[in-house]
């Protein structure tokens, strides 16, 4: 069975978020959550990171560098949510509709590229093969293979992937984000924060996710299966050729 553990993310001695998550790739999780939530803009802005096991779960203790620490203190909020929630604990409606970066327009992929990226997903989902209970978020690029992270929460999996890419110095702008889940608004927001121009999900997107992707210039592909896929926004990045 998949493990589900309370994970607290602490910055400068104060708990900022508590999420139910799979206790794997936790340094990636800490880094990726910090980045997709706008707490940091670069890995070097975390001066120290420690994974601390406590009686009730795990604490990811981070200390921010000076200027970033001051900026975070000005916007601190408490965030508590279950595994299925990517936005619980927000203090205002405006935070749910936060501004996100516009996607770059340099990448073009073929229908074959999308099919190959989706086909590569199942074999790399090692934890899901054992448990049938976790989501995956992966980054695929034509020449670079697949980077994949898994978690009981779909947004946690994407945060772990974001952290893995940041640690590698790998740009999300040159490939495809592939998700094993439905595409909801927080996944679009997080993908946009890491600069991904194309999101592909094996299930359908929500209506709000489509609207946000359209405004942000993201190409959103859903219902990606063996027999094809549907393009919901910005089809110009997908060539008509295989």
Short description:
With 242 residues, the chain is α/β, with parallel strands linked by helices. It has helices spanning 26-36, 66-74, 93-96, 111-124, 126-131, 154-168, 185-193, 207-216; strands at residues 5-11, 14-21, 46-54, 57-64, 79-81, 135-141, 145-151, 176-179, 198-201, 219-225, 228-233.
What features would you describe in this structure?
The chain has two domains: 5-96, Ubiquitin-like (UB roll) (Roll); 111-237, Cytidine Deaminase, domain 2 (3-Layer(aba) Sandwich). It is of the alpha/beta class and 242 residues long. The protein has eight helices and eleven strands. Helix 1 crosses helix 6 (154-168), helix 6 packs parallel to helix 7 (185-193) and helix 7 runs parallel beside helix 8. It is globular and about 50 Å long. A hairpin with a 2-residue loop joins strand 10 and strand 11. The protein has helices at residues 26-36, 66-74, 93-96, 111-124, 126-131, 154-168, 185-193, 207-216, and strands at 5-11, 14-21, 46-54, 57-64, 79-81, 135-141, 145-151, 176-179, 198-201, 219-225, 228-233. A six-stranded mixed β-sheet has the order 7-6-8-9-10-11, sandwiched between helices. Helices cover 32% and strands 29% of the residues.
